[in-house]
Amino acid sequence: MSDRNSVSTEQGLAIGQAAIARGDYRQAIAALETAAEQAAVASAIGAEIRYWLATAYQAIGDIEAAKTVCRQLAKHPLREQRQLAAQLLYILEAPRLERRADWQVEIPDLTSLSEDTLAKLRQAPGGSAKEEKEPDYRLTPVDDLNRINTRDNRFLGFGLLFLIALLGWILFRPT
Q: What residue intervals traverse the membrane (predicted)?
């Protein structure tokens, strides 16, 4: 393999990884498929490209293509790569769990909104002042300071004195 192909393979991998990070899985698949054609399955970079390719296929919902890529990787000469492929294939072949409807958040489609409505939504949030909600609790002032429980305060005072004495003993003890 020439240096030109090696560089373009690495560039294809980098482009594919960046596209996956952005969520642009179709572009990632295009870049990774091109890179996968140039890299041998048995090479380290070829395996990495194919793992990313399987991830991109899974992200767009093409589970069968992701499984096919994992099955190719299951024949890799390195045991570690075969184990990773088997683990990924195990995940891909796992049954889908049903999700309750109340566990999901439905994001509305904003493409059908008119320009006036969108302009109102884009306005700065500082346009109208919100009323501040009154807190549910009230602090009551203490009229007689003798009614304050100081017993806990004495305990803290004794604790601080003990810590200071202990620290002084540790620092200034004769050795």
A: 155-172
